[in-house]
Amino acid sequence: MNVVRDLLKSGKTVVGTAGSAFSDMTMLADSGFDFLLFDTQHTPVEVKQLIPSIQSIKGKKATPIIRVSANQADLICFALDAGAMGVIVPMINTKKEAEAMVRACKYSPDGDRSHSGPRGEFGEVTDYRSYLDMVNEELLIIPMIETQQAIDNLDEILSVPGIDVLLVGPSDLSIELKVPLDYQSDTYQNGLDKIAAACKRHDVVSGMYFIPPEMDPNFFVEKGFKFFTHPSAKWAVEGIQNGLSAIKR
């Protein structure tokens, strides 16, 4: 089913990296990352352009997750129909917005998503009702917390059934807290602590869209943040260099 969701439910930390619509993702999808995150908010692509990349990693280790550009039912539907097994929606600030996101992700009776046939790797379809229920249960639903308003509404947002991960947008949150990109400041860290504590109260995983540069990922894991991305390029270069260094040249 959804391996990332199962890992999170068991208390494990999951690590992903950025996917792309413009290059072959098959090697990256089998490199060890738990998920590939395809972004349509801050990249010049639309969800439908991601279909070839997502189809190419079917059966690979990494789970495909798409960040849509806005909390709109059509964009969420496009992402799910493309085969995403998780959806990230930016700038969720209120309970009402969280409820709308969840309803756009789920099939009836839990939501309003239109039926379009099997999508994603949710197992074999024996009967369609069972498939719909399986997707409703297994899909990763991930709203982003990026504003002071969202922090003020944490408990209301987290009370919405169906949320799996509450994802911090590090840059926007730091700007909102008036400490732009100062990720080590007390003000920023206190904000993260509030988010982690609220997630723990509601049995929701807290996550970071990315680990701030020059900071140790384990610092955030120890705070309770168990879902984040990490750049792949540096590790790939180090691996190639290690391989070449073993050859007598």
Task: Characterize the structure shown.
The chain is an alpha/beta fold and 249 residues long. The chain has one domain: Alpha-Beta Barrel (TIM Barrel). Helices cover 41% and strands 16% of the residues. The chain contains 12 helices and 8 strands. It has helices spanning 3-9, 26-29, 51-56, 73-81, 95-105, 128-138, 148-152, 154-158, 170-176, 186-202, 217-223, 233-245; strands spanning 14-18, 35-39, 63-67, 86-89, 140-145, 165-168, 205-210, 225-229. The protein has an 8-stranded parallel beta barrel, surrounded by 5 helices. Helix 4 links the parallel strand 3 and strand 4. Helix 4 packs parallel to helix 5 (95-105). It is globular, with a radius of gyration of 18 Å. The model has no long low-confidence stretch (mean pLDDT 93).
Give a brief rundown of this model.
By secondary structure, the chain is α/β, with parallel strands linked by helices. It has one domain (3-244): Alpha-Beta Barrel (TIM Barrel), CATH 3.20.20.60.
- Please state the structural category: alpha/beta
Give the rounded overall mean pLDDT: 93
Instruction: Work out the helicity level.
Output: 40-55%
Helices, by number, come to: 12
The CATH architecture comes to: Alpha-Beta Barrel
CATH class: Alpha Beta
Q: At the fourth CATH level, what is the homologous superfamily?
A: Phosphoenolpyruvate-binding domains
Q: Give unreliable regions as ranges.
A: none
Main sheet overview = 8 strands, parallel, barrel
**From N to C, what is the helix and strand string?**
HEHEHEHEHHEHHEHHEHEH
